[in-house]
Specification:
Distance between the termini: 39 Å
Shape: globular
Largest sheet: 7 strands, mixed
CATH topology of the largest domain: TIM Barrel
Number of strands: 15
Number of helices: 16
Helix content: 25-40%
Strand order of the largest sheet: 9-8-5-4-3-1-10
Low-confidence stretches: 1-27, 360-365, 423-427
Structural class: alpha/beta
Number of domains: 2
Mean pLDDT: 81
């Protein structure tokens, strides 16, 4: 028997609801969508967890101004060593943005989506934003267009967004209560005035809710981003999720606060902590219910290029683009073939899952008993939905939970690359230690290869390295390792952390 993977039996039990397997419009949720919506999301790496393994996106930094201030934000220009929203290396004119988009799309045919997400707020820079969209609609009609906004100027921009056939809009909504909002937003700039405190938060919340309703009325898919700030809005985000779902949002992305002091944000300077991975997971699960939850967000830079989790922006600086000879008509033909090939592969995988779900009830000996506890596993991957990356080359690990009810994607954990090749491989002790700390709670890590030293240190930390499933599909590999752990008698006991707590309590 194959375990149900990612909500295959969504209609059969509460355990197979979005809580058990929601991650964007994931593999099996896709089957429940209308043809129109499926067409919009199947190749969008932010709106489909499955798609993010195969399709790339890019952001163009044409919107420098912002009309609100957030305690977690510090916009930085000409910055290449930080990976977070609001950071860019080059500010672009609309013309430069179009030139860059065409260059990326011709070079990376898997790129399907162009988004404007800053470094300020796109709708606070309407001329630059909509000039970019207008030119791209004319010159690159095969690219999806997206925008990400704080929502303050959204209601008056909805008609213009619809005019440019923008099917996806992201609104950052961190609260629906002004008393919470005044702790997050020190001010907004509204009707040519700077407004502070609870009044400012109320105006922002009202505009966000109005804009959300207007977008939904026009059939535009809305993703809501929420920053989890421990002690400020963490419990409140459950109410946020309930309300945005009620108003028709398609997807909710609860993401962790980034608050390192070196970033220069108010929260960073004041020592506000970010959430632990377990806290984030618990909140995402609590918010899920029937709501699609995005768990694969990378909190991208405002000039990100490539697959989620990678950044190829340095390949496409203005000086490098100027030397490229781009035939975009030819590029569109190539892109069409590539996209059709990926969609065909994904359709085949989906059909296979449906066939497995439709088979007769398996023999009891093939079933996995319900008493086995869940296990978290980390995966090193360079894309394509495969276990295909060397442990030492990973800059992030994808985390999955396997249980008797299925396999679900939990999230990702960023790390510093341990091995950079040559004589330096293995010398970055701090990076290796950081990777092991980042894998806290995981019982196994799947990768294509791993060196002796990290293998030993992982085992000492109670994490089992596994290189036996290289080049296998991730979900199948995770399931296989889960079965191996069961066969070895490792899942009859409490999880390692629980066992340690029991010992300490005794």
């Amino acid at each position: 028997m194959e375990l149900t993977v990612l909500d295959q039996e969504a209609n059969n039990s509460e355990a197979s609801s979005c809580v058990s397997g929601s991650c964007g419009s994931d593999n099996d949720q896709m089957s429940h969508l209308t043809d129109e919506i499926r067409e919009k999301v199947q190749n969008h790496p932010c709106y489909s967890e499955e798609a993010h393994h195969y399709f790339a996106r890019m952001h163009v930094a044409v919107a420098p101004a912002c009309n609100i201030q957030c305690h977690y934000c510090n916009r930085k220009y000409d910055c290449s060593n930080e990976s977070r929203p609001g950071v860019v290396s080059e500010l672009l004119t609309p013309e430069e943005a179009v030139m860059k988009t065409k260059a990326v799309a011709a070079t990376i045919p898997q790129m399907t989506v162009l988004g404007i997400a800053g470094p300020g707020d796109p709708l606070a820079n309407p001329e630059r934003t909509f000039d970019t969209f207008r030119m791209l609609s004319e010159q690159a009609p095969d690219i999806k267009l997206c925008v990400s906004t704080n929502g303050l100027s959204l209601p008056e921009s909805v008609d213009e967004l619809a005019k440019h056939n923008i099917d996806h809009v992201t609104i950052t909504i961190n609260c629906v209560d002004p008393a919470v909002g005044e702790k997050i937003y020190p001010w907004i700039y509204w009707n040519n005035k700077r407004i502070r405190g609870r009044k400012a938060a109320k105006i922002l919340i009202d505009q966000q809710q109005k804009g959300l309703e207007m977008l939904v009325e026009r059939g535009i898919l809305v993703k809501v981003n929420s920053v989890m700030i421990p002690g400020v809005n963490d419990e409140h985000l459950k109410e946020v999720s309930r309300i945005v779902k009620q108003k028709g949002a398609f997807l909710h992305n609860v993401m962790p606060l980034i608050a390192e002091a070196e970033h220069g944000t108010f929260y960073g300077v004041m020592g506000q902590r970010g959430p632990e991975p377990e806290e984030l997971q618990d909140l995402q699960d609590a918010c899920a219910g029937d709501m699609n939850m995005m768990r694969h967000c990378r909190q991208c830079r405002a000039d990100a290029v490539g697959l989620l989790g990678e950044d190829r922006g340095e390949e496409f600086t203005l000086d490098k683009i100027a030397e490229m000879n781009i035939d975009y008509n030819a590029a569109m033909k190539t892109r069409k073939v590539v996209h059709e090939g990926i969609i065909e592969e994904l359709d085949e995988k989906r059909a296979k899952r449906e066939r497995l779900a439709a088979v007769s009830i398996p023999e009891p000996k093939d079933q996995i008993a319900a008493h086995y506890r869940p296990a978290l596993m980390a995966v090193a991957t360079s894309g394509g939905g495969l276990v295909n990356q060397h442990f030492g080359h990973a800059t992030e690990f994808l985390v999955y939970e396997a249980s008797p009810t299925g396999v679900r994607f939990i999230g990702h954990r960023k790390v510093d690359q341990y091995c950079i090749g040559g004589d330096t491989c293995g010398e970055k002790e701090s990076a290796l230690s950081g990777s092991i700390r980042a894998l806290k709670g995981c019982e196994s890590v799947l990768c294509s290869k791993i060196g002796y030293e990290p293998w030993s240190l992982l085992e000492e930390a109670g994490i089992e390295p596994n290189g036996e499933h290289a080049m296998e599909p991730i979900e199948e590999a995770v399931l296989a390792v889960y079965k191996e752990m069961i066969a070895a008698g490792k899942l009859d006991e409490a999880a390692p952390e629980e066992a340690a707590q029991q010992v300490n309590a005794g």
